[in-house]
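Structure tokens please, single chain.
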Amino acid sequence: MRYSAQTGGFYTTEIHGTNIPADAVEITSADHAALLAAQSAGKLIEPDANGYPIAVDPPPPTLAEVQAAAHAAIDGEAGASRARYITVAAGQEATYMLKEQQARAYKSAGYPVASISDYPMIQAEAAAVYGAAPTAAEIQSACDTVIAQADAWIAKAAQIEQSRISGKRAVSAAVDLAGVDAATAATITELGAL
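Here you go.
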């Protein structure tokens, strides 16, 4: 087995024949295996001063890389905070919006039970809660509950969004890794408490 500092690659005559770089140095199979194991554990393989391969720690991440990771962590925690209050599933957000829209329109129209079929999401909500033939009062109650839930969600969503944006701004303003870590930890703690 040979290693080329010039290419950073490993070569064998069985695979590469005579197409092995001139700077390639001989290494043992055991050294090759140890280098690959170290690489799998996160190390980098680089040549030493003599061109022999060694495993080294990767360079620390840059401030921009740490900030990007912190932004993603804050976004993830904001998503987890939202998921404590709403169902996170494909199409569910649109369903919530449609229910709210129809509830507000039904209430605005004076709760017209005779035309409940014009508000299928409210009709379905009332039937789900009160049975197949809900009364006018039950339909109104289902409608008002949808509106109350929407209003409560709007208030909570605003808190989550304020925390998320403020946290990401604090991370972006940090001038060192300790500042990024502190801003991220504070924001994740705040989001976790919402």
